[in-house]
Amino acid sequence: GWAGGYPEIVKENELFERYYRELGIVPAGEWDAFMAALREPLPATLRITGYRSHAKEILHCLKEKYFRELQELEVDGQKVEMPQPLSWYPEELAWHTNLSRKILRKSPELEKFHQFLVSETECGNISRQEAVSMIPPLLLDVNPHHKILDMCAAPGSKTAQLIEMLHADMNVPFPKGFVIANDVDNKRCYLLVHQAKRLNSPCIMVVNHDASSIPNLQIDVDGRKEVLFYDRILCDVPCSGDGTMRKNIDVWKKWTTQNSLQLHGLQLRIATRGVEQLAEGGRMVYSTCSLNPIENEAVIASLLEKSQGALELADVSSELPGLKRMPGITKWKVMLKDGQWFEEWKDVPSNRQTQIRPTMFPVKDEEKLKAMNLERCLRILPHHQNTGGFFVAVLLKKSPMPWNKRQPKVHQKLPQRTGDTEVTAANSDNGSECVAEEPTLAENEESKKMQELQNSDTEQSKKEGVCGPPPSKKMKLFGFKEDPFVFLPEDDPLFLPIQKFYALDPSFPKMNLLTRTQEGKKRQLYMVSKELRNVLLNNSEKMKVINTGIKVWSRNSDGEQFGCAFRLAQEGIYTLYPFIHARIISVCIEDVKILLTQENPFLSKFSSETQKKVKDMAMGSIVLKYNPDPEKPEDLQCPIVLCGWQGKTSLRAFVPKNERLHYLRMMGVEVFKAKRKEEESESKMEEEVQHRLAQTEEGMDVEDKEHDLVTKMEAEVGEGLSHSPVESGSMEVENKIEDLDQSSKNATNHVSQESKDADTSNVKD
């Protein structure tokens, strides 16, 4: 039958059942439960961002308010169960409900809860992420000093987890580690940027490469160039996705063994390239959302075999207690889409040997097979804990890979030669040794000359701190041409007024400031960590960087008359705050409520203490800091830092809409009704002001549509609090700032990506 205009998909696939029954991936007596679970919709899960100082406040708000309100509800005849924490996720920071995502989106009774989820997701305070997808980052065992590569990162939920782990200590604004998040799909890279940007980290870089041939990067170590090896690598490869049948119901009718046979080679090449770039002693997690051993154990077994002892599977049986898992399997067969089985490579007819490769079969040598410890892999089955299906393997690197025993140092050899050697090795099927020979003296001399010629063009740009795409790779056909990354020179006159105005600490790393323009006025200033600066400056000719850096200042032409042309940006305030020693105003919780619910409140509305502090301060950009009072436990118990602007007679906050709503919720202010009123006022304003953003998409939340746009309408979230009249001169200044804020907040990928993110900003992971 037809429902809602679409034919209902029948959740049956005879070949699927025949294949997995034969392989015995499900314990005896559990097959019916396994299939029944696959036919049920996947429950909604959410994860609270763990490194934020207010994670505990969000958890308290969820438990005491939103979850309690769900308890007595019935939706479509189904009683809503109280959400439960995932037993294996640390500190109760991940929760699941018996509600599917579809019910959450469509049910009027759940509108308030859904609005909360959307708003908090946009702020980066929670992630709506599938439960099994949270496992690989946890098993990576990340520390703040680790250099991390996420090889196939889009859409970015796992990348977000990795960023959180780097920022485990919120008192350290610049962890020594970083995340390089890669994806082969140029458009999906912008979705990745959107996900990562919510977390406001200076330690994330998004790049666009084929993961199976991702280039070796160089870093400067005490004046010498060396190849960058990663401490941790997440290798969540493209897969057939038959573990996702509960949410991607198309898989039911499209599933065939052909998908796995076609992907196996790519998965093995990506995993091989990953272990090549892994540091000795490092850890790589290989994962898929597939149940098929051709994509799972076959890839791991082939990788272990050709590593000749350089790799081993880690025993993670004691990690994530509470997670129900099955061991990896050691015996399997290969089946074609016509149902024909093969147990060994020698049985495969020559006309099928392009479809089926030797690496797809299990190892026959019993001793070799035992030494591989394939049972250390993790298989997650849907019916065990009401999740999707998943596979994870944790690999440890004990020594260099046999085909590059002498791990190359760039200052000894040509970077190009090193890259060619390693990519060739990565793409070889048999994994035979390709040990690089030592170059002769004459070759060394020639190499040095060639290197000097190669570097002559790039050295000048590096001195100027310019990192742009290679001239030969304009990517006109395959994606957008990126603006360059230009680091501020040490003697740039732009910085002196900023340093003076905000009384920046002498330890402030001004060398890490960058812009996205070489000519004309610099509109935005961004910041990266020292380690990412090193990567950027040394790899601009070989790496396509989509995005990096966190916005810390925005140009405001009116600010020049007050001593500084740049105002603080909320995105980067938690990174900047430790270095700022001037223009900080401590405010009480009542002041914060006024700032967040009124657009341009008079100074007279604030507490007498705040009025005194503001009295002797010049107009311009300011920092508003709320410190919790431990003697008032009923008040918000986490610190808040807001960017603001002091006018002649008013004080205002420059905070994106969803962040405003977040802080108000944490303070116990009801914002759901405020939103209804706000939508009514917005519709009136739209009739009067034609240049307002059209909001016509059906079924979308305001947060989904506006996504990071801070307009005047976004500032009006008040609980029926009327806006104060403001002096015309002051209002003029404030309005100009507002206009600047509106344009700057739309820069998901800095200045150059304003139009590109529009297509992907509403996609959820």
Report on this model:
The protein is of the alpha+beta class and 765 residues long. Among the domains are: 43-128; 132-331 and 366-403, Rossmann fold; 583-672, no CATH class. It is built from 25 helices and 32 strands. The strands form eight sheets. Strands 9, 10, 11, 14, 15, 16, 17, 20, 21 and 26 form a ten-stranded mixed β-sheet that branches. Helix 5 crosses helix 21, helix 10 packs parallel to helix 11 (297-307) and helix 10 (257-276) runs antiparallel to helix 14 (415-427). Mean pLDDT is 80; it is low at 408-454, 469-478, 674-680 and 682-765. Belongs to the class I-like SAM-binding methyltransferase superfamily. RsmB/NOP family. Its main location: nucleus.
Q: What is the level 1 CATH name of the domain at 132-331 and 366-403?
A: Alpha Beta
CATH architecture of the domain at 132-331 and 366-403: 3-Layer(aba) Sandwich
Average pLDDT, to the nearest integer?
80
Note the beta-strand portion.
Answer: 15-25%
Q: What is the terminal separation in angstroms?
A: 30 Å
CATH topology title of the domain at 132-331 and 366-403: Rossmann fold
Residue stretches low in confidence (pLDDT < 50, at least 5 long) are 408-454, 469-478, 674-680, 682-765
C-alpha Rg (nearest Å): 28 Å
In helices, the fraction of residues equals 25-40%
Helix/strand structural class: alpha+beta
The CATH superfamily of the domain at 132-331 and 366-403 is Vaccinia Virus protein VP39
Shape: globular
